[in-house]
Design brief:
Distance between the termini: 32 Å
Oligomer: single chain
Strand content: 15-25%
Strand order of the largest sheet: 6-7-8-3-9-10-11
Number of helices: 12
């Protein structure tokens, strides 16, 4: 077991009241597996991994629960100790490579600084390793690319450079926060192929965040569906696609254009909007948008038993 999260809660104090961004999330990540986190914007995916990375520094944030990396508790770990882990053993690929990279420094400088921060090597050795990493992630002429600034690279090349930076110390756990969202479908496919190749080469476990179940079908071993800061379904990828057990998961799958059969006149959409985290509905958070809502949904459903867990009273009625 590389990562074990238990009853994670992240709450923010605001002028309007307490915002429960994450409300009792528990999950495990095994060595070498790819866990996909899926859900609409605002469902809590990014806040969950930011808590794992120790990157929530807002003084109004309250973080409780347990996050253990290879048995070591990360909640409450001093910032200096967390910095030793972050980048060396746990790395993150951010959603927007343009903001993840510093615009006034060359790509090679930024990657070599990451290496020098965690390894006792010379600056020349770090620079040469930066060239090797850029070559590994598929950037052409890496010996020239190290001298370029972020704005001199295309979006796909910038994302490859961010991936190279995350791989500088061969981390055991890699967190990818929607790394393909801003890319066109051709480059998106190339990045997914690259992540699969790197995962096989380095053996890293990956937590992959997206709102696109099509991407999950390509990469994940297990999928965890989140809604309003909670887990609503979790299982192996094949089970999620073959037998979705939560109405929200089914609605996400129904919104994907079919590859076979008659072409629908109009794509299905999920009615309504995600609830405000300041004022969650009583009981099931998805209830106001759910076409199968019934009296039992006035209470909050618990996440069912593994291996195919779903937080829905329809499952208990099966």
């Amino acid at each position: 077991m590389i990562l074990q999260v238990r009853d994670l809660r992240v709450t923010f104090r605001t002028e309007q009241g307490l915002v429960k961004a994450i409300d009792g999330v528990s999950f495990d990540v095994q060595e070498g597996e790819v866990l996909g986190l899926v859900g609409e914007s605002g469902s809590g995916k990014t806040v969950t991994v930011l808590a794992v990375m120790g990157l929530i520094t807002d003084p109004n944030a309250i973080i409780t629960g347990s996050i253990q990396y290879r048995g070591r508790e990360l909640v409450g770990l001093p910032p200096r100790e967390m910095r030793k882990l972050r980048g060396r053993e746990i790395a993150m690929i951010f959603q927007d490579p343009m903001t993840a990279l510093t615009p006034v420094y060359k790509i090679g400088w930024q990657i070599s600084e990451q290496i020098l921060a965690h390894q006792k090597v010379s600056r020349k050795a770090a620079w040469n390793k930066a060239i090797d990493l850029l070559a590994e992630v598929g950037i052409p002429k890496p010996e020239e690319a190290v001298h370029r600034y972020p704005h001199q690279l295309s979006g796909g090349m910038r994302q490859r450079a961010v991936i190279a930076m995350a791989l500088t110390c061969n981390p055991a756990l890699l967190v990818a926060d929607e790394p393909t969202t801003a890319l066109d479908v051709t480059v998106q496919a190339q990045i997914l192929d690259l992540l699969r190749k790197l995962q096989a080469t380095h053996g890293s476990a990956i937590v992959f965040i997206t709102h696109d179940l099509g991407v999950m079908a390509e990469l994940a071993d297990r999928i965890m569906v989140m809604y309003a800061g909670r887990i609503v379904e979790r299982s192996a990828k094949a089970d999620i696609f073959a037998d979705p057990r939560h109405p929200y998961t089914r609605a996400l799958l129904d919104s994907i254009p079919p590859l076979e059969g008659a072409r629908p006149h109009r794509l299905r959409s999920i009615s309504g909007a995600p609830p405000s985290l300041l004022n969650l509905p009583q009981g099931c958070a998805f209830g106001p948008r759910c076409p199968h809502r019934f009296d039992a949904c006035a209470a909050r459903p618990a996440l069912g038993p593994e291996p195919h867990a779903a937080a829905c009273f329809l499952e208990t009625a099966r």
